[in-house]
Amino acid sequence: MSKIKAAIKGIDVFLPEYRLTNHELSTMVDTSDDWIMQRVGIRERRILKGDGLATSDMMSEAAKKLLEKTNTSPKDIDLVIAATNTPDMLFPATACIVCDKVGIHNAWGFDLLAACSSFIYALETVSKFVESGQYKKVLLVAGDKMSSIVDYTDRNTCPLFGDAATALLIEPTNDETGIFDKIFHVDGSGREFLYMKAGGSQYPATHETVDKRWHFAHQEGQTVFRFAVSRMADSALELMARNNIKPEDLAYLVPHQANLRIIDAVGHRMDLAPEKVMVNIEKYGNTTSATIPLCLYEWEDKLKKGDKIILAAFGGGFTWGSLYLKWSY
User: Fold this and answer.
1) Is-catalytic flag, 286?
2) Which domain covers residue 117, as residue numbers?
3) Per-residue pLDDT tens for 201-229?
4) Is the pTM of this model over 0.70?
5) Does one domain contain both 38 and 120?
6) Domain count, the chain
7) Of 160, 231, 232, 324, which is most buried with the most CB atoms under 10 A?
8) Which residues are within 8 A (CB) of 31 and not within 5 positions of it... i.e. 6 or more apart?
9) Catalytic residue among 99, 256, 259, 295, which?
């Protein structure tokens, strides 16, 4: 019998209605559409509006749509993992809140946080649970309300991020599809270049931390850019080499959508034609945990069973890596 593999069997998304355009941003901070487009390739991003609305609200809506789309009952879900960098609160886990809002009562779950690599780390984690043979239907929700930790007085970071959530149904398969391989890394020295300083145990919230604006995301762009291009490309190329995948064999590269120049550089390093690289950053910006599954959702109608796909991400920590799968439907 073939080895059990984990396969994506359905995907859906939730996108907030509000579109924050570059033009509107230019009325808030010293920037312009041309400046943003030339540097990062983002024209607009979605923002979740409404008192008390949080990451779990977006995840729950995406999950409800997914369950209806795949004709799956909430009672059949046996594990929920939430990939997020903006949990509703430190505890309980956002996965618990999603379970309650969606009506999932026969599962256990937890959150996974690995900055912009959260989704691929969570997908690999899910795959091991499924490969064990004990889990038949796993809900992986991935998303962030990045607007909650963005400083809209900082022209270098506020154009980058948007809000979104995605939901994927992961099931076992015995055919020649599913998740085959991965290469992941961590370099903890990167914590100095991409972080949110306060809000954890080192600097709990105080008047001082708020006044110093330590509760917002901070990054040193040039350092992150250099690391992201080299690490994402290196891990993807290594994955292709050890699985004997040539550029012409690959259906798509799905890179984390952080910066159009990073995406273009990684695709060039991998010798891929532009049409083989999924890009939607212009419409949504960097939705961190949601960027890769949001691409998969938008390309869902173009994907064919057996398509060879590589997912690649880089995030704070530094965390990075690539994952190889064959599309399952």
Assistant:
1) yes
2) 5-174
3) 999 999 999 999 999 888 887 888 888 88
4) yes
5) yes
6) 2
7) 232
8) 22, 25, 155, 159
9) 256
